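User: Could you check the structure of this?
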Amino acid sequence: MGNGGVRIGWIGSGRMGAAMATRLLDRGNDVTVTNRTRARAEALGAHGATVADTPRELADREIVFVMVSADQDVLAVTVGENGVLTNPDVAPTYLVDSSTISAETSATVRAACERRGTKFLAAPVSGNPNAVAAGQLTFAVSGDRDAFDRVSEYLHQIGAGVTFVGDGDVARLVKLCHNMFLGVIAQSLSEIMVLAESHGIKRSALLEFINNSVLGSPFTRYKSPAFVDLDFTPTFTTALLRKDFNLGMAAATATGTPVPIASLTAELVASAIGAGYGAQDFAALLVEQARRGGLVLSPEDPPNGDGLMERPVPTAASRD
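Assistant: Sure, the predicted structure tokens are below.
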């Protein structure tokens, strides 16, 4: 048993949850996993996971992570029937939720944690399963600072960047701001690629130049294969991007904050969904932009690899 005998619970072993839990397991942690579809949890047995039937069975763990799809799922696994907070005798010391949910749902779960004496951390992430495997996932975390200090060791084992952003549920808004920016970048990249292609320039050539310039980033590099090969197997769907734009626009409206570029991008994302790309990766914004420009795109040979490389897990000394 690794890390001083801390017993960890993990709720949600979909593509993201499984990748994140695997990093904890592969570092010798005692992790018990539960998932609505038990077979997905059992797949982690190869990495040493124990499988529980319900979230309620994880109530005696010191730290419980949640990584599920949406608001109703988070409520179901926390305060719903057999939720992790419904055991009358015991509750986790810390509950860390990395799901992308509304601030309202997050506040509901936080209040339930307070009634049970559980410290709650909102810890949404940036990245996809490939980024998780490469150690490049990043966290925005908010809540009790002492709880963060206790849990951050395990967040660093999962990802490369862990940022404490404040109290309460402000990490949710940080994640929405991030995803709105992600959409704006994807739409902007789509526009310049269509412009270049209209003049006979290959998308691969343009992206190689950008990726080697000061504008290159992990995002432009790991999205290059999708843009070049037109492979829109989803890592983050256009429909989910629209959901986050809607939540972000509501937050902007609440404070009267003008976001003109984000507003226009939200309309273009909705247009791509209307054209049938809702279930595909949001890189499909490129194809819809090309249609508006009167171009029909063809796949090119994609760059080698996925633009990601494994980063070492930071040690406590390296973080100090």
